[in-house]
Design goal:
With 642 residues, the chain is of the alpha/beta class. The protein has 29 helices and 18 strands. Strands 3-2-6-7-1-8 form a six-stranded parallel sheet. The termini are far apart.
């Protein structure tokens, strides 16, 4: 089968030479280099040459899992997220998992795994669990339920302590490939490159990715500690071609790279960035203004360069945070509910005080308001301040007094456990919307239900009637014309929502059989009444705006979310959005701390390299030093607009 390698690209041929030496490898390639294409080529050739071998491929997101599955469909290939892979390989070792969690909970240096009601945690703590240790989307350690972050810590522990586990996995999978390795947690790399060595079994670990595209804080970033020419080191193979970007953007990207890789246009005449055998020139702009109105920038690009911001598949505006987009995409009310509720911030202030001061009173039958009264009683000065709202919290409470009174009436034991995060609203879709057992999606059951309603509306509007019939909860006989007519009237009555609230539409969709209120939503309403009561009065049309944004139907995206995608025209908005982790001004001036500079330069690199044709970067009111640096990077394409 080795003769089949002759048609493979040089880097993949080098990978197979490395595999033949029994060595682990790393394929490093910049943006647009075709790393996924190489990964797919390696998987196909490995299966062709090893028809009985099982192959595992892991990647960072469920969307990437689906993409690889669609490109390679073979019974010997298992594609999953890293978390699902690890859980599938440790979940049957319940005795070891229980011991691991207890041991980790008793260690002072492990802060993410803690069981407060038992110090130290006894060895028999989990003996009464009926379902054993479970991995779910939420954390309840006392019930033996671990979540995303804890899984990595626990897996690292059990692989480190039990070398036989590494032998079992290596026997099962002769080849393990990890895509987007730079976003992989250090604990995962430890498992595959440190703990696996404790087993004498043989297998190959292959990594694919780009150190320059590390944009998540818990990613390892690079494999510099593991790379080398020695037999027991990971061999790095570099892929320098760029198949996506025009020449001007490649030039800018090379100025931003810090790892020694200098990308070159692909020599393949069929590459997207080639025309008649010559790389596209492209457009590169640094636009600045003393006016922070982004619409004026969009108009400038529309009039002078023909951009169309209504075409969301071709043109994208990239912002650093969802909060910067919420006003533009018109879902500000929902964003504030999930991300800026200062009553919940006050609740967290109270929770922290109780924990820090070791207040051991039994508040199980008290309301939140009664707990606050108890803690404030007979206090003054700094002691009273510590259990009172901050100035910003008080302003929010004064503006939402009915909401605060409602929160005060809730049982503290329930209210204190209620968790609200913007991830519950904004998180990406699962691999398969119908597969609710898949881990990774943080969307809450209210948002999932609203998505179901809007998905049905969207399918009908796009005339995908067969998909709509399968997706709806409407029950009818296919032979009944009357029932089909009734369904048509029901869905069309739901489409024009007007000023209806989210609760109105939920009830309407339930009554019309479009999306029935199920046990998950009922349980959510009961358990998260505070959140539900806030969301239910928002207009459903605002949720439709959120839906359009998350489904990529608007010109807006966050700079993190755009990774792995590409568009003809990209407008990058350089606004830190209140984040201290990034600073675009200091990036241009070179005055940021090493970590902030590295983080900012990488996110900027990822954004710029999304553009297939034209790139514009907008900077509001830069000083002369920033403009001077921009002229170094962008040349004569630095433009001031009024």
């Amino acid at each position: 089968m080795a003769e089949g390698r002759l048609n493979l690209e040089p880097e993949v041929q080098e990978i197979f030479k490395t595999i033949g030496e029994g060595r682990n490898f790393l394929l490093s390639g910049g943006a647009g280099s075709g790393k996924t294409y190489s990964l797919v080529s390696v998987i196909r050739q490995v299966i062709a040459e090893n028809p009985t071998a099982q192959v595992a491929c892991m990647t960072y997101t469920n969307a990437a899992v689906k993409e690889i599955e669609e490109r390679v469909n073979h019974k010997n290939l298992s594609v999953s997220t890293i978390h699902d892979f690890l859980w599938d390989n440790i979940k049957h070792f319940q005795k070891e998992l229980k011991e691991a969690i207890i041991s980790l909970a008793n260690r002072e240096d492990i802060t993410k795994i803690s069981i407060d009601d038992a110090k130290p945690v006894p060895e028999n703590y989990f003996d009464s669990l009926i379902d054993g240790i479970q991995y779910k989307e939420f954390l309840r350690l006392r019930e033996g339920i671990i979540s995303h972050d804890e899984l990595l810590i626990v897996a690292n522990y059990v692989f480190g302590k039990y070398p036989k586990l590494s032998s079992i996995v290596k026997d099962k999978y002769k080849f393990i490939f990890i895509d987007e390795y730079q976003d992989t947690n250090q604990a995962v790399v430890d498992i595959f490159l440190t703990h696996f060595k404790k087993s004498e079994r043989k297998n190959i670990i292959g990594f694919f990715g780009d150190a320059m595209q590390t944009i998540y804080p818990d990613g390892i970033g690079n494999l510099d500690l593991y790379k080398g020419d020695e037999e027991n080191k990971v061999k790095e193979i570099t892929k320098k071609q760029n198949r996506r970007n025009p020449q001007l953007i490649i030039n800018l990207a090379n100025k931003l790279r810090t790892d020694g890789i200098t990308q070159e246009p692909s020599t393949d005449p069929t590459a997207p960035n080639m025309v008649n055998g010559v790389v596209k020139h492209g457009t590169l702009l640094f636009v600045h203004s003393k006016d922070d109105d982004i619409r004026s920038v969009e108009k400038f690009l529309e009039v002078n360069y023909g951009w169309n911001f209504k075409n969301s598949t071709a043109t994208k505006e990239l912002n650093l945070t969802h909060n910067l987009i919420a006003d533009k995409a018109n879902f500000r009310t929902l964003m504030d509910i999930y991300d800026r509720d200062l009553i919940l911030s006050f609740r967290d202030r109270i929770k922290k005080y109780i924990k820090d001061k070791n207040v051991f009173n039994n508040f199980s039958e008290k309301t939140f308001g009664e707990v606050v009264q108890f803690l404030q009683k007979d206090k003054s000065g700094k002691e009273l301040t510590a259990v009172s709202p901050t100035k910003a919290m008080q302003t929010f409470i004064d503006s939402n007094i009915e909401l605060y009174n409602y929160a005060s009436s809730l049982r503290y034991s329930d209210f204190s456990k209620m968790y609200i995060s913007k991830d519950q609203m904004l998180d990406d879709k699962k691999q398969d919307q119908e597969d609710r057992n898949k881990k990774g999606s943080k969307r809450d059951n209210l948002i999932k239900h609203l998505f179901k309603i809007q998905n049905n509306i969207s399918l009908y509007n796009r005339k995908k009637y067969n998909d709509f019939l399968r997706a709806t909860d409407y029950r009818f006989q296919m032979t009944s014309i009357a029932k089909k007519k009734e369904l048509k009237e029901n869905i069309e009555g739901l489409i024009n929502v007007g000023n209806k609230t989210i609760e109105d539409v939920i009830n309407d969709a339930n009554e019309k059989g479009i999306a029935l209120i199920d046990d998950r939503l009922t349980a959510f309403k009961k358990k998260n009444s505070y959140l539900y009561n806030r969301v239910k009065d928002v207009r459903f049309s605002e949720f439709q705006n959120l839906y359009a944004y998350l489904e990529g139907q608007t010109p807006f995206s966050t700079q993190h979310k755009t990774k792995g995608t590409e568009f003809d025209n990209v407008l990058v908005i350089l606004d830190n959005g209140g984040w201290n982790n990034y600073n675009f001004e200091k990036m241009f001036l070179g005055t940021a701390s090493p970590t902030v500079l590295d983080r900012t330069q990488k996110i900027f690199y990822v954004c710029c390299t999304r553009a297939k044709e034209n790139l514009a970067v907008f900077y509001y009111n830069p000083d002369e030093k920033v403009i001077k640096k921009a002229q170094e990077w962008f040349g004569e394409n630095v433009i001031k607009i009024d």
